[in-house]
From TrEMBL:
Keywords: Iron, Iron-sulfur, Metal-binding, Mitochondrion, Transit peptide. One of its GO terms (molecular function) is methyltransferase activity. Residues 1-44, 56-80, 216-244 are annotated as: Disordered. It comes from Prymnesium parvum (Toxic golden alga). One of its GO terms (biological process) is translation. This is Uncharacterized protein. Residues 223-244 have a biased composition (Gly residues).
Amino acid sequence: MAMRRASAAARALRRCSTRPLSSTARPLHSAAVDPPRRPPPSIDLADLEYEEYYYDDDEPRPSSARHQLSRHEREEISESVPPHLMKGEHLNLVRMPWALDAALQRYSIPRIKAAQAVRADGATHEPTIDDFVALRLDLSFGACRRAMHEVSCRLPDFTPARVLEFGAGLAPGCWAAHATWPATAAYVAVESNTTLRSTGESLALAAADAGDSPSVTWASSLGGEGGGKGGGEGGGEVGGGEGAGTAAYGEGAASGRRGEGVRGTFDLVMSAYALSALPGKGQCVALDALWERTAEGGVLVLIEQKLGAEAMSAARLQLLAKSDAHLLAPHPPNAHRAATEGELPWAGWLSRSPRSLMGAAKRSNVLEKVTSCHLLQNVEESVARQAHQVKLRRGRERRVVTEMFGYLLCLKVPEGSEIPADGMWGRRPYGRVITVPRKRRKHTLLDVLTPEGTLEPFVATRSKSNPRDYRYLRKVTQGDTVAMEMLIRKSA
């Protein structure tokens, strides 16, 4: 055995002495023997270089993993999205304008505290206008602010010069438009209720003394007796008109004198929680009147609660019949035309679980079951609500309240004119996320309303998405839009 080991070591020593020295040579004391090396296969480098780097545009790339694009090499779909919208169109929290809060502190809170002292006996009292201010102003402002933000997302170059709010109440829409576009100078609020109109004027005057506030001109109806001017300096007037009411807004009427109606056209026309309060025929007449007062290139905004779903459905179908109407939101543009033009009963589909929602979508078109996309908007309560519910608060605690509402945005485009590109996705087709996304470790599941008007499940994977696109998809929530090129259709 010792002789065999010595002979093997001698043969290894002779091999090392005849082999040229290299940095990878084993030390002499090692008894291991290198295995014989196979000659490398013959490779045509020219063919290999052509196969890896040169492809015609019409040729598909090889399916091998080494030829697939990496995550960073994939096209960035969200490149056109503005930086401040990289988390989606949603607003996490809406706060009241500080000038409006100061006006409530000065005008409404003393009245609320006086009413609380009277109600200390425990007897039942009728609700007053101060209760309405405390319980509805912040929620209405939050819904209008979210709708105005959606308009700015779809049309970033849109800045209205004149704003009309129909059924204004306390004019939360004017305040929301002023918060979105501070450069807007002319506001007209139409409110038939004398108590609401006088309270809105008083709040606007108190806010004007506190700081920046919209200059609002008040009117009792689109064609009836007008009101005075409230708010900041340099407001407008309401003048005589004809027919069912013509909207007018003149310049240089700081006196705020009373007139018979409003005339002219407006860049932004809105109606928050007002159409559903009218009878059936009155809704159609009012919507036609509001559309006539919308200028070319202007936007009509409709906001309703769940109880006003039928009015919203009828308004959507009525606008679809107009040749110069282009529906912007909440559904993708083509989804409105794909919907069945019939009576659409209301269904609280956004409150269902994703599983039951997908089961309903498989049976029929989702637009046959719903009328509009409802959103949930968080709003920081006003100081009036805080004072009204002081017994439910700890000290100066200000809670967050939630408003559930549906909305409709319609752009007035002249016949033959090109529809402007979307402010986030340009000309790319996009859909809207209608349920809360289900986030997993390396992928996200989304239920999307497609441009074809169908509700389908999609998945966004980390490995097949650009890093920036995937970050966007991880941050979107219910009500946001996504480009269809960023999604992968989920197999059944």
